[in-house]
Specification:
2 domains; seven-stranded antiparallel β-sheet; 32 strands
Length: 376
C-alpha cells in the first residue's frame, strides 16, 4: 500500500467487522494510469488490504490483519459526522491518495403555479488523505449514482450506473423515489478533468412489461479485456413463480467498450456468471456444464453451480450449494460453516481472504483444506 496513505491514517487495531465493497486491480502504475479497478458493494480490496463499511469505514491490512479507521483527520475520535470514515459512505474508491465518494439529495420543489416537481442533485466528492481537505469533483442533476451496483476505474475514468429513482406522484402531489424501476443510465467521470458524461439509458424495452416498474436494475459485473460488463435485470410480471413467492427475472447483458465509448447488447457473456479481473465464470444451460474463461483460456467442468460463486487460484467457491472445488484435481469439498454469511473475496500471497459474518480471515492452503467438512 502507498506509504503516503498509511502515515496520516489514525490506527485502531481490531478484528474486522462486516463487508461492503470489492476492488480488483491490474497493472503496476502507482497512479492508476492504465490500471483497471472493480468496486462493488460487498468487498473493496485495495493493494494489500480491504476497505469495508462499518460506520465508520475501515481498512484492514492483509499483512498484519490489523484494522484502521479510514480517516486522516488529526485527533479524530471517529464518533461524529465529521469523521472521514463516516462521510465517505458504504462504497468509497481510494486512488491517488484520495478517497472518492458520491452523495445525492432528492426532494420536491414547489412551483409558482401550485404544482410540485421532483428533483435529484448529485455530486462526486473527494477527500485528500494527506490534508483531509474535502472538495467537489463534479455535480450533475436529474439522476442519482448507484455505486453499490458496481463501478470500474480505468485510465483514471470512473464508470458507474445512475438511476432516475422512478419518481411517482400520488393524487395529492406527494412523490415517492425508488432505485428499482424507472430508467437506468451508464455514466462516467474523468477524474483528471472532472468531466461528467452520461452515455444514455442502458435499456428501455423493459418498459413494456408492468413488472419492470418496480424491479429493474443495471448492475456492473466487472470487466473483461477492455469491456465493462453490465447486467440489466428485471421481471416482466410480478406473479410469483417459486416457492418463496419471487417473480421470474429476465437478464440481458451489455458491454461497454472503453476504447470506443459505446454500449451495446451482447450474448458473448452468458448470464449467471461472475467476473474477476480478466476471468469470468458461467453455467452453460445447454451443455449442463460450468465454463471458466480465464485470460482467454476456456475450460469446461461437470459442475452444477449456483448463482453465488467466486473464483480464486484455480478454486471455484459455490456458496449456494455450500461447496468448493479444487479444479487442479476436480476434488469436491464442503464447508464446515453454515451456508450463509461467508465468502472468499481475495487471494493474497498464497492466502485466501474470507469474510465470515463480522470477521475477516486469512487462510493458507492448509487452513482451507482443514475446513473441509468430511462426509460421514
Amino acid at each position: 500500500m502507498n506509504t503516503k496513505l498509511l502515515i496520516p491514517i489514525s490506527i485502531t487495531v481490531t478484528l474486522l467487522l462486516c463487508s461492503s465493497c470489492k476492488e480488483h486491480n491490474e497493472g503496476t502504475d502507482s497512479n492508476n494510469k492504465n490500471k483497471k479497478v472493480f468496486v462493488d458493494l460487498y468487498s473493496n480490496t485495495y493493494d494489500n488490504g480491504r476497505i469495508y463499511s462499518s460506520d465508520p469505514a475501515r481498512f484492514i491490512d492483509y499483512e498484519t490483519m490489523e484494522s484502521t479507521v479510514l480517516c486522516s483527520k488529526p485527533n479524530c475520535t471517529h464518533t461524529n459526522s465529521e469523521c472521514i470514515g463516516r462521510i465517505v459512505g458504504d462504497c468509497p474508491l481510494m486512488t491517488e491518495d484520495y478517497i472518492y465518494y458520491f452523495t445525492f439529495v432528492d426532494g420536491v420543489k414547489e412551483l409558482k403555479d401550485g404544482k410540485r416537481e421532483p428533483y435529484i442533485n448529485s455530486k462526486l466528492n473527494r477527500i485528500s488523505l494527506e490534508t483531509s481537505e474535502k472538495e467537489e469533483v463534479v455535480a450533475f442533476d436529474g439522476i442519482a449514482p448507484a455505486e453499490f451496483n458496481g463501478m470500474v476505474l480505468s485510465d483514471n475514468r470512473l464508470y458507474f450506473t445512475c438511476d432516475d429513482l422512478n419518481p411517482t406522484a400520488d393524487d395529492y402531489g406527494n412523490y415517492c423515489f425508488n432505485n428499482a424501476g424507472g430508467t437506468h443510465y451508464f455514466c462516467c467521470v474523468d477524474l483528471d478533468t472532472s468531466e461528467f458524461i452520461n452515455y444514455g439509458s442502458i435499456y428501455d424495452d423493459d418498459k413494456q412489461y408492468p413488472g419492470s416498474d418496480n424491479t429493474s436494475n443495471g448492475l456492473i459485473l466487472g470487466y473483461y479485456d477492455n469491456n465493462i460488463l453490465v447486467d440489466y435485470h428485471f421481471a416482466k410480471t410480478l406473479e410469483p413463480w417459486d416457492k418463496y413467492g419471487f417473480p421470474e427475472f429476465t437478464d440481458i447483458m451489455f458491454e461497454f467498450d472503453i476504447d470506443t465509448n459505446s454500449l451495446k447488447q451482447t450474448d458473448m457473456y452468458p448470464i449467471r456468471n461472475i467476473v474477476y479481473k480478466n476471468a469470468y465464470v458461467y453455467y452453460d444451460m445447454e451443455k449442463g456444464r460450468t465454463v471458466i474463461v480465464d485470460h482467454g483460456q476456456v475450460r469446461e467442468f461437470d459442475i452444477d453451480i449456483g448463482h453465488f460463486v467466486s473464483y480464486f487460484n484455480n478454486k471455484l467457491f459455490d456458496y449456494d450449494n455450500n461447496k468448493w472445488y479444487d479444479l487442479s484435481d476436480m476434488s469436491e469439498h464442503k464447508w464446515i460453516w453454515d451456508q450463509e454469511g461467508y465468502e472468499v473475496i481475495d487471494y493474497y500471497k498464497d492466502s485466501y481472504i474470507v469474510i465470515l459474518g463480522n470477521t475477516t480471515l486469512k487462510l493458507s492452503e492448509d487452513d482451507l483444506f482443514a475446513l473441509d467438512l468430511k462426509e460421514e
